[in-house]
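The pair is quoted verbatim below.
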Amino acid sequence: MFESTDSSAPRSLQPLLHDVVICVDAPAFAASPRDGQLRGAHVQGFYDHDRRLLHTLCLLLDGREPEPIGVQPLGPHQVRFTAVHRDPRDQTDDPTVIIERVRTAGEGETIALRNVGTAERRLRVELAAATDLADIADVKRGRRGPPVPCTAASDDGSLEWHSFSGRAEIRSTASRVDPEAAGGPEGGTLTWSPVVLSPGESWQVRLTIAGRAVPEPSRHPVRPREPAPWSEPAVETGDRRLRDLVRWGLRDLGKLRLADPLGDGPAEDQFIAAGCPWYLTLFGRDSIWSARMLLPLGTDLARGTLWALARRQGRVHDVFREEAPGRILHELRPAAAQHGHGLLLPSHYYGSVDATPLFVTLLAEAWNWGLPDDEVDALLPYAERAMEWVVERTGDDADGLLRYNPRPGGLRHQSWKDSVDAVRDAEGRRIEPPLALCEVQGYAYEAANGLAALLTHRNRHDSAQRLLNWAEALRKRFAELFWIPSAEGPASRYVAIAVGHGPTPVSGPASNMGQLLSTGILDEEDCCDVAAWLAHPQLNSGWGLRSRSATVPGFNPLSYHGGSVWTHDTAIALRGLCVSGRHQEALALMNGLLDAATHFEYRMPELYGGDARTDDSPAPLAYPAACRPQGWSAASGVAVLTALLGLRPDITRRTLTARPATPLPLTVRGLVLDGQPLTVVATGSGDCAFPELPSGWRRAEG
């Protein structure tokens, strides 16, 4: 989230993450430089529940830092740093002591020393530790707080820090030597001396790092106790890129899970946190999209996400929280926080225009994938209240559109493109709210139709018809207001990113129109025109879909929303292209996305550079401050897989549509439909079979 300021005073800058090693086990994570030494700079440290527990953990051997030689991820939650210690008195340049530090999010780290030389080594091992116990919002603003004084307990080798906002501690257990602990106003140290290592001998110390905010956040999401609420599919394909993107994405998602402590059902209500490090919490829009993308793996994640948001659905009108009855939460934090540049957000913040219709659609889609009827019935009132908010909001708008109009000091733009300059016109000028974004109208249309189908199935025909009438009126208004003629480009018109005052459409092609393709608000001719723009080099960088056309003033390949490529945005557009039968354009986007994934070792960043791909162009660059791992980016592999298979279930008819777009044979086992196993075999020539189809279901004809 970003806000601007007119002040000329110097300001701190957001820390960059492009060279940061992150391991995560939500709600905890650790952020390290590539040598593993935490020196108190930038985002470095151990964190839990948005609180930095330590920012310094620096290892010295005989007063010198080890020399780093490698870093190796051991999983989403764990990383190993390897270094060596050389003694100038040795008769060889070879290292004689190898140091391995295994850092584990939410736990601490293990430090192991191994003497690989031929002589005994006597070492003084020191660890310097310090913290500011800062809130993640302050860290994101580039601010570092004053040091918190450290107290030491020599009897158990521990260091502790306490402040008005947090507490932290380090406790050590070693194989042979107890440490000397010392505290002070700037931090503390743990010292082991001497550590005597015979040739071939090893020594190890285990550090447990713990702490929380003060006071502890009440009723805030916690680490899950239960396994991930989805199956892991077996993907058999000649395209290793797709298989690895799915596999590594699910590994990251497993560690981005959180559980709602307010749940009282037989199973935990789990959801996916938005992203690490900045948004490791419940975000309405992000968590919903992650759950939508994973629906073919089971409906339990969708159920947990829906309940976590339903319990926090808006009940009253509150200007500061931007809460309203029926509105779905945007962001949940342990406490109110100052995000800089005049942006002060409460712990429960409702400032998004898209989370509410997306909530309705998630319930409708989860129902079609087999969410049990008792869960659907229990969640239905929340979806109806959400839809009431959408309908009332459009009724209050002069143009009958779903707009956002933020309060002063809140988020200026309130859809997924929420940076301060997210909406620009073809001249490069910033366009200010109130605005009706194109994809938000599509979300609302899709939500109304999905809820109408659900109500019809429950014999509430009058309510369903009112929603269908409202949706049709919105579709007509959309067709009248959002199309902009284009004298140059791949099609004679494109969809405006937004409609402002007047109503005036905002000129300049942007990626937002790609998210309309699967909502139903476009007709066949509309889809053809949108597909042409998405495939054109103005928007298709060759590595994925640019957020903004490269031909308009203000395009910046490393701008947050002004030209970068967003992983989830590309995956959603790709799905829409497949749904609308534009397979050639879909495969072009898919190959760019999968090629980009190889350069990111299949841990897709939140967003990356939108530079044009050429025969000799370098690998794409991650946006320097992008979350990685990030929820909907990690889930995009499953979204691409589902899009290629063309899967769309219809619970009312018990039919499953499959229109494969994959040019290669593809077999996927371990999918889940209606709570039962599903296997899909695509031939690569547009046909497919279901060797395993749930009882009572059949393939849709045509």
